[in-house]
């Protein structure tokens, strides 16, 4: 039978008392960040899958049967700086099987492909214990040959997860232990450099080891007037050159119903972080508390509150507390059509781990600075058009300080700096999404984001696209054949070689992928994945070509 992905409980935020002492201003030295001007464009959050919780979905009063069928999930879109999804992947074992098929909770999967690629994956779960469930998974995907210079652009990713869940009448407990190992090379060098006798392939290798442990508790009765979710965890990251980061985060989200139409909500975070890299030691903390009130009715919903954030950075001499207004208005003028508008702001964390998730070819001792989103004014509409069609549209105009970008270093252009615009940066974002669903058989979603960057001190928004679009499709045939097809498009990315002074506008990225999973019997399924079908050796970042057409195929066995 189908193996379901590991469930992840949505647990947010630890309430914290926010206080800080404002440091007196001092002259800013060259290369130093002003401690009163720390703001970055990128909303860095811990995003977890949504759960059916009071504070995530507060229903309108007396909703109609048609309204109850709808779930709107319009995201506050981030600027996309990560790689498109080009890593070979496969569908999980089928999630729909004939009724007579017995339930198999475990599976193993083996596959291989070009670029000397290998996939090994397994899942094991114990769910027959009273109120207790244990799950474990392991996955390894590697390519011994890369897009350029053979094994010098090879890569491998290994992931191990162990999860324990306990369900009582009033609460749920969950603990997660994980390990990730990512090995890759700095292969964005010239062929002339590789031909030199002094070239040592061992010096271009990089390896990231990440260990994380999280434990959380949440209310098990979502119909209760009081709802809560509390989670805390620690993550340790270390690379091959002994740079490290330890990040302890605690998150709390709570909600209480005051009347049938009014709810009080609070979201809070506490992060204690230390980064070490050679002679650099950063002790950086961030505390956030966000109390809000929500009024909801069949045609009108308003959320209003305050977002108070304190950040400290011992090395930069920062101790800064700011408060941002939070207002969101949602009106339902007709049927299932929503019109919304609002304003908010935040201090968004930039950690070594978060920056590496965007660009893994970072240079040593990169500057870590949080981004301040001074304000974000937005508006738009979302709704169901009938006939299986739904839409979302949003316009956002946001102001940032220390807007973050990625560009090649000097003189080693194989690595990347994180460059911040210390002035005021304004970003206009126009986002749209159109979806279609035909019961459980066919789904299609087209998304597009258009960005206009108005920077103060930087020449360009290095490494950031002006257009980012995706078209995702999935199709199920007779509960045996499962197909997904995706198309990714990026345009307007610029990087500069500061050694030569040449600015490059990278070619538009077109990346198409098709994945097929075919159920052969009660316990066996076959899969194949075709990636970068256009065989475009594009560059997401300057000098780093991606794999051309790559494929992966194999067998999955459930037991």
UniProtKB/TrEMBL annotation:
It comes from the Bacteria. The keyword Signal applies. InterPro entries: Beta-barrel_TonB_sf (IPR036942). Residues 1-20 form the signal peptide. Its main location: membrane. It is found in: Cell outer membrane. Gene3D superfamilies: TonB-dependent receptor, beta-barrel domain (2.40.170.20). Keywords: Cell outer membrane, Membrane, Receptor, Signal. The keyword Mitochondrion does not apply. This is TonB-dependent receptor. It comes from Spirosoma flavum.
């Amino acid at each position: 039978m189908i193996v379901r992905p590991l469930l992840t409980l949505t647990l947010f935020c630890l309430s914290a008392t926010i206080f800080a002492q404002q440091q007196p201003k001092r002259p800013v030295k060259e290369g130093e960040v002003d401690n009163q001007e720390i703001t970055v464009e990128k909303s860095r959050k811990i995003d977890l899958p949504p759960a059916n919780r009071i504070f995530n979905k507060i229903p309108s009063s007396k909703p109609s049967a048609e309204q109850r069928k709808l779930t709107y999930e319009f995201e506050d879109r981030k600027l996309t700086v990560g790689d498109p999804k080009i890593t070979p992947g496969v569908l999980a074992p089928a999630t729909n099987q004939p009724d007579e098929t017995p339930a198999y909770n475990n599976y193993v999967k083996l596959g291989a492909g070009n670029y000397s690629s290998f996939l090994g994956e397994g899942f094991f779960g114990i769910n027959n214990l009273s109120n207790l469930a244990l799950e474990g998974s392991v996955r390894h995907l590697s390519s011994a040959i890369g897009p350029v210079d053979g094994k010098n652009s090879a890569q491998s990713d290994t992931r191990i997860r162990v999860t324990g869940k306990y369900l009582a009448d009033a609460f749920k407990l969950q603990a997660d232990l994980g390990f990730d190992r990512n090995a890759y090379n700095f292969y964005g060098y010239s062929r002339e450099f590789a031909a030199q006798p002094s070239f040592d392939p061992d010096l271009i290798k990089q390896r990231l080891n990440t260990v994380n442990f999280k434990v959380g508790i949440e209310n098990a009765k979502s119909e209760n007037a009081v709802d809560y979710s509390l989670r805390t965890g620690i993550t340790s990251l270390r690379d091959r050159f002994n740079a490290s980061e330890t990040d302890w985060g605690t998150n709390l989200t709570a909600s209480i119903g005051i009347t049938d139409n009014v709810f009080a909500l609070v979201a809070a975070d506490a992060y204690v972080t230390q980064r070490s890299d050679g002679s650099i030691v950063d002790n950086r903390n961030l505390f956030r508390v966000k109390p809000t009130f929500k009024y909801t009715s069949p045609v009108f919903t308003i959320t209003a509150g305050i977002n108070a954030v304190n950040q400290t950075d011992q090395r930069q001499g920062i101790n800064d507390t700011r408060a941002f207004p939070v207002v969101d208005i949602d009106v339902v003028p007709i049927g299932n059509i929503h019109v919304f508008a609002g304003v908010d702001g935040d201090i968004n964390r930039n950690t070594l781990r978060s920056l590496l998730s965007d660009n893994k070819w970072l240079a040593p001792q990169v500057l870590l600075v949080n981004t301040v989103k001074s304000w974000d004014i937005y508006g738009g509409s979302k709704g169901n058009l009938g006939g299986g069609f739904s839409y979302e549209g949003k316009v956002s105009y946001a102001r940032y300080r220390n807007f973050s970008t990625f560009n090649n270093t000097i003189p080693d252009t194989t690595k990347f700096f994180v460059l911040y615009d210390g002035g005021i940066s304004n970003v206009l974002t126009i986002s749209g999404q159109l979806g279609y669903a035909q019961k459980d058989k066919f789904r299609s979603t087209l998304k597009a984001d258009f960005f206009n960057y108005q920077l103060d001190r930087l020449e360009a928004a290095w490494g950031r696209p002006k257009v980012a679009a995706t078209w995702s499709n999935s199709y199920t045939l007779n509960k045996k054949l499962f197909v997904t097809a995706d198309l990714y498009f990026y345009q307007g990315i610029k990087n500069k070689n500061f050694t030569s002074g040449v600015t490059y506008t990278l070619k538009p990225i077109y990346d198409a992928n098709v994945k097929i999973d075919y159920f052969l019997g009660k316990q066996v399924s076959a899969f194949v994945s075709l990636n970068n079908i256009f065989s475009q050796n594009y560059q997401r970042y300057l000098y780093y070509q991606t794999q051309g057409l790559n494929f992966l195929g194999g067998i999955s066995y459930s037991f």
